[in-house]
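We close this part of the discussion by returning to an individual protein. The encoding preserves chain order, so positions in sequence and tokens coincide. The sequence in question and its structure tokens are set out directly beneath this paragraph:

===
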Amino acid sequence: MAVPKKKTTKSRRDMRRSHDRLAPIFLVECESCGQKKMKHHMCKYCETYHNKAVRKAPLETPEDEE
């Protein structure tokens, strides 16, 4: 079984882990509906990207079809 020959210092351990952090999520306001969305992504509320319709907005379907 592998065992380290010398103790790893706190400084060396922390320097090794310096790139392991999570990247922050950048949220911006949608240009057409004003909801929060991720940068460079389609708005999931109005389904637009740069004020252009990517696909049609989902139709409201009645829950009781009787």
